[in-house]
Structure formats: structure tokens, C-alpha cells
Design goal:
- By secondary structure, this protein is of the alpha/beta class.
- The protein has 2 domains: about 140 residues, Aspartate Aminotransferase, domain 1; about 230 residues, Type I PLP-dependent aspartate aminotransferase-like (Major domain) (Aspartate Aminotransferase, domain 2), CATH 3.40.640.
- The protein contains 16 helices and 13 strands.
- β6, α8 and β7 form a beta-alpha-beta unit.
- It is globular, with a radius of gyration of 21 Å.
- This is Cysteine desulfurase.
Length: about 400
């Protein structure tokens, strides 16, 4: 295997790789949370040191604090290729989806229909399902193919008509890893006047989405999966954000970024999020690639190529093994490197076994309980999940394969 890029270009920006306690350990739990880059840590520390006060005030330190928070909004808008009015930071993606469900519950009526999937993380489906039950809405479940875990577009089309007002689905499942056709789904939704909520938590760490191209009304992900602080980002079409009922204080009704975030997020974390963009800018410079801006996506294409090269030997190994059932497609271009396996031994036990070989992985149902049931897998048995991003080394992939060979 020849990697397109030496991972040292990326790893030098992550202090975790210099930690003595982590040396020799291969990190394959990125789907649970990626390492934080130095650019984020520096901004986080600076804000807490210099600006741990109320922002947007009349004195210099407060004005500076507000400016750093604005930079967080601006930077994430640039990465996602949308106007800054799209960007809303909340405490977590789970909290954000709960607020959105409550807001939609105030505008939807009995007789309206919603489409949910059984491939979703519970955060992107549970609150909406509860709201639907309370409002007497019709719930249509887009179910996965039980053999593959895939969401098939033809099954979605069979559920869609002009009664449907809201559709929630994942860009990629945090277990299946297959990339769903977001632009196609959103285009079909628009034809019947339905709004879309896309869960991008499992996709964004691998390639920041170009939201202008996807056509989603709402796109959600967690910045701690994208090398940043622990918070949730909601990108919402500003016209929809204005139309949904205000969930914040009544006197903030005219402030767009406060209307759908009733529990304000940590100021320092918003400011630190600018470091995510700074990291991508820095590695783009190192790779002599244009930084992401105005739809320029070459950097993210390069990072996907890096991950695909790393993924190739692992998928080849799993395809050749009769001891595992790979969840999702083996088409490298159609998935992200979140690799789940159904094995004879429960996923959590296998994760413990792998730890003896200095592999950091995880086992369980990962809040995708409905998917486990839809694939006829006992959620308590669960899957073994290994996940990585572009900073993973080739040697770590082989370390994982060797460890799997011994514990399966």
C-alpha cells in the first residue's frame, strides 16, 4: 500500500500523538470522537485565559471575545460553503435535534406525515418520533435492507408523497458507514414540499460537506468528531430558521443564531471552532492544495483519497475472513472508514480483547438500536466497530489486522 500523503503532515498538528501514554496504541475509535488539533487547543486556551467574560460588551476584552466567536461562525460557514447565517452552535447534536423536534412540533399538524429511518443514531430519530406521537403525525419508517444495512432509494420513493412534511436521515450511519445519496434525497423531498434534517455526524470527519451542493434544509454534526471541541453544529437554511417558532428567550426573537439554541453553548468552544478551519488551511498549505473556500473541495477530496488507501487492506482482509460479517458495502468509494463487524463474540468483548494488542476500538450498538433490530442482531451482542480518519498510519492498519487475526 502506498499512501498518497505521509501521515506525519497531519499528525504533527495533534498533541495526542506525542503523549507517552498513547505511544504504541493505534486509535480506531474516531467515530466516538477524534483527537483535537493544536489549532483548536490554542484558541480554546487563549479564550479561557484572556476572555473568560461576557462577550459582545462595550470594553475591549469583551469586544475581542465576541470577535473570536464570530470567527468561529465565519470559519465553519466557509468550510461548509454557506452564508454565516446558516451556522448555529448548540451544546450537542442530541440537544440540537431535541430543540428542532420541538420547533417542528409547533408547526406540523395531525394528518401530516414524517419519514424517519431505522439506520439513524437515536439522537436524529428519537426526539422526532416522540414529537410525532404527541402530535398525532403519521410516521413512515424507511427501513434498511436487513442483509446489508443499506437504505435503498427505491424504498424511500415508495414512502414519499405530498403528505410528507419532514424527513430525517443520516449522511452516513455510524455503524453501516455507507454514504447515502443526500442530494438526490433532498431534491426528491423538495418536489413534495418536505423539509430535510440530515445527520452528518458520521460523515463530516471524513469530508466536510458542501451544503450548497447537497440541498439539505438542515445539516447537523458534532465538532468533537471533526478535531474540535465538544459541541453540536446546526447548519440551517436561514429562511427556515426564521420560519420555525422561536425556542429561545422572547426578546431574542430577532437574533437568528439565538432562536433555535435555547441553552447557549460554551463561548470558548465557539471561538475555538475557528481552529478546525485553521487546521485545514494549514495542511492545505503543506500539501500545496487550495484551502477550502467558495466551493473549493480539493483538500477534502485528497483526504478521502488518503482514507481510501488506508481502508483498502482492511476491507480486503475482512472480505477474506469467514469469522466476520462486514456491515455495509465493500465498495471503497461508497463508504467512510467506519468499519463494523458482526462476530460470534459480542462486540464489547472483542474490543476488550483488542485492547490487549494496543488497539483502541469499541463494541456495542452505538445508539443505533433500531438498526441492530432491523438487521436481526441482538443489540446487547452488538458489533465491533473500528474507525479511523486521515491521520491514521499504514502501520496502524496492519497492527489492527494482525490483532483481529488473533482475537477473532
Amino acid at each position: 500500500m502506498n499512501l498518497p500523503v505521509n501521515p506525519s503532515i497531519f499528525r504533527k498538528h495533534f498533541p495526542a500523538f506525542a503523549e507517552n501514554d498513547l505511544k504504541g496504541w493505534a486509535f480506531f475509535e474516531n467515530a466516538g470522537g477524534a483527537y483535537m488539533c493544536q489549532q483548536v487547543i490554542d484558541r480554546y486556551n487563549h479564550y479561557f485565559t484572556a476572555h473568560k467574560l461576557q462577550p459582545y460588551g462595550q470594553y475591549p476584552a469583551s469586544k475581542e471575545a465576541g470577535a473570536e466567536m464570530d470567527d468561529g461562525h465565519d470559519s465553519m460557514a466557509r468550510l461548509l460553503n454557506v452564508h454565516v447565517d446558516w451556522i448555529h452552535f448548540g451544546p450537542s447534536t442530541t440537544a440540537n435535534t431535541y430543540t428542532l423536534a420541538h420547533a417542528f412540533g409547533q408547526v406540523l399538524n395531525a394528518g401530516d406525515a414524517i419519514i424517519v429511518t431505522n439506520q439513524d443514531h437515536e439522537a436524529n430519530t428519537g426526539a422526532v418520533r416522540r414529537m410525532a406521537a404527541e402530535k398525532g403525525l403519521e410516521v413512515r419508517e424507511w427501513q434498511v435492507n436487513p442483509a446489508t444495512g443499506s437504505l435503498e432509494f427505491s424504498a424511500f420513493e415508495n414512502l414519499l408523497d405530498d403528505k410528507v412534511k419532514l424527513i430525517t436521515f443520516p449522511h452516513a450511519s455510524n455503524i453501516v458507514g455507507e454514504i447515502n445519496p443526500v442530494a438526490e434525497i433532498c431534491a426528491a423531498a423538495k418536489k413534495v414540499g418536505a423539509k430535510t434534517i440530515v445527520d452528518g455526524v458520521a460523515y463530516a470527519p471524513h469530508s466536510m460537506p458542501d451544503l450548497s451542493a447537497l440541498g439539505a434544509d438542515i445539516y447537523l454534526f458534532s465538532t468533537y468528531k471533526t478535531f474540535g471541541p465538544h459541541q453540536g453544529l446546526m447548519a440551517i437554511d436561514p429562511e427556515l430558521a426564521k420560519a420555525l417558532p422561536n425556542q429561545g428567550h422572547f426578546f431574542n426573537d430577532g437574533i437568528l443564531r439565538k432562536r433555535l439554541v435555547p441553552a447557549g453553548p460554551d463561548h470558548a468552544q465557539i471561538a475555538a471552532s475557528a481552529g478546525i478551519a485553521a487546521y485545514f488551511d494549514d495542511i492545505a498549505k503543506d500539501l500545496n492544495i487550495a484551502a477550502p473556500n467558495n466551493g473549493e473541495r480539493n483538500l477534502f477530496n485528497a483526504l478521502r483519497d488518503q482514507e481510501t488507501a488506508l481502508l483498502t487492506p482492511l476491507i480486503d482482509y475482512l472480505k477474506s475472513s469467514n469469522k466476520v460479517r462486514l456491515v455495509g458495502t465493500d465498495d471503497l468509494d461508497a463508504r467512510v472508514p467506519t468499519i463494523s463487524m458482526i462476530c460470534e463474540k459480542p462486540g464489547l468483548e472483542l474490543a476488550r480483547d483488542l485492547a490487549d494488542h494496543k488497539i483502541m476500538a469499541a463494541g456495542g450498538h452505538f445508539y443505533v438500536y433500531r438498526l441492530m433490530e432491523g438487521m436481526d442482531v441482538d443489540p446487547n451482542h452488538g458489533v465491533l466497530r473500528t474507525s479511523f480518519v486521515h491521520y491514521t498510519e499504514e502501520a496502524e492498519i496492519h497492527q489492527l489486522i494482525s490483532a483481529l487475526d488473533q482475537v477473532l
